[in-house]
Structure formats: C-alpha cells, structure tokens
Design brief:
The chain contains nine helices and eight strands. It has an eight-stranded mixed beta sheet, sandwiched between helices. The longest helix is centred in the C-terminal third of the chain and has 33 residues. The termini are far apart.
C-alpha cells in the first residue's frame, strides 16, 4: 500500500478542527476537504484550515485517507454514510470504541491523547497518537500519517486504547472538575476570582510534569497525615458529595504517599 497523502477530515468539533489544522500544516499531507453535517461549523473549520468543505457525506471528495473525528456514538452512522473510494482508508479518533464500528475494508484508528478546544491551537507534534489498523499494511499506512503529524506515535489495540482513555479521564476531566469545584467554593464563600487559583494550578502542573512521578511532588495535609486539618475541611463542606470526594482523595493520597 502506498503512503497516504491526501486527507479528508470528517467532523467539525474540537478534535476535527485540531486535526484539520495539523494536517494542513503538515509538509507531507494535503488536506482536501472538511465534511460535516453542521454547515456553519464545517465552513468555520475549513476556513481555519484553508480547504474546501461540504455538508453531505455522499459528496465527500476523493482522498487516500478519511479521518472521522466525531462523537463516539456517531462514528458508526457517519462511517456508513460516508462515500469514499474502495482503495481508501478510513479511521476514527475515538479512545473507547473499536475499529469494527467503521464497517469493512481498510480501516483503523488514529487516537490523539490530548484535550482539544475550538479556536485553541496545540503543538500537535507533541501529542501522543495511538494507531491501529485492520492489517499490517493498513497499520503502516496509518502510522505514516501519524508520523507526519506527531513525533510520538504508538501502536495500541482497542483494549490498550480504552485503558489509556481511562487515565486521560482522571488526569484531565476529573482534575478540571476539581478546579471547577475549588473556583466555585472560592467565589461563593469569599467572593474571590479564579485568578487567585491560577498561580497554584500552574505551579502544581509544572511540578508534576517535571517530576519523574507526580507522587514525588505531592503536598498537603493528606501526605502529612494531618487528620485534624482534614476533618476540619470535611466539616466545612456543605455538600455530601464534596465531603465524600475530599475523604476519598485524602485516603488515596495517604495510601499512595507511603509508597515513596
């Protein structure tokens, strides 16, 4: 199988936009088109990436590889509706579903392990990309595309990809939810803005990234085993779910800190 060169990105969400821009910036790939049912977003993503667009899956342009970047629940439906040449490859970008959702033919997965936001550029060359293909030739072709976009490319089965996705929920989604909880508490109780937390968040993240393991830079009352402070904090929280979160995380920190 020849190395894929021309690319169509299917989707108009955060992931689709970031991949489209990364493909457009690549020296060895050509972004032919963005295809998405949401005409407004399709046009917006295409404008940012500098390519054509269309809103009809049956009118997708010819390309070597089609990257479906839509929600997990929409992958199967979009793949079935997508018109593409017989000898082309189709991949999806989801972390939690298998490539069988794409139907038959040359297919696979190109999973970017990163959080994306519309309008916000990331250094795609540093984004870990996990690839899987329906056979060895297809896998190598997908790897070629992945290597054109990122310096961190790994193979991953569906099982391995689900495990990786799980860790991302902890490291990204749950952490951001805790930022949200802290911000709301600070505002509701003391009328202070998020800016008060920014330096703390930045330093915590910087230390974790620089450490050989985040556990080595853990601080706070839980590491010290300061039960008096922890109990006082629990009593200060009004919501039972917040109290439970505090207790569970305190116990987790205490248990894992003893492994150092």
């Amino acid at each position: 199988m020849n190395n894929p060169r021309t690319v169509v990105v299917v989707g108009s969400g955060n992931v689709a936009e970031s991949i489209a821009v990364a493909v457009a910036d690549s020296f060895s790939l050509e972004l032919v088109q963005v295809v998405a049912r949401n005409e407004v977003r399709a046009e917006a993503v295409a404008q940012v990436a500098g390519c054509d667009w269309c809103a009809d899956m049956s009118e997708a342009a010819e390309a070597d590889i089609y990257i479906i970047a839509v929600s997990d629940r929409a992958v199967e439906e979009v793949a079935a509706a997508l018109h593409r040449p017989e000898n082309s490859i189709v991949v999806h970008t989801a972390g939690s579903i298998g490539m069988d959702a794409l139907g038959d033919g040359d297919r696979g997965v190109l999973y970017p392990f990163q959080t994306f936001t519309a309008g916000r550029r990331v250094d795609f060359s540093a984004v870990p990309l996990f690839v899987e293909g329906s056979d060895e030739d297809t896998t190598q072709a997908i790897e070629y595309v992945a290597n054109a976009l990122s310096q961190r490319v790994y193979r991953a089965t569906s099982k391995r990809r689900r495990e990786i996705h799980l860790t991302g929920v902890f490291a990204c989604n749950f952490v951001n939810a805790l930022y949200t909880m802290a911000t709301d508490l600070l505002d509701e109780r003391e009328g202070l803005p998020f800016d008060v937390l920014r330096p703390l968040i930045e330093e915590t993240a910087a230390k974790a990234v620089e450490a050989t393991h985040p556990r080595h830079v853990q601080t706070g009352p839980a590491v010290r085993g300061d039960k008096a402070v922890a109990e006082r904090h629990v009593a200060m929280l009004k919501e039972p779910n917040q109290q439970e979160i505090y207790k569970l995380l305190t116990e987790y920190i205490w248990q894992t800190s003893r492994k150092i």
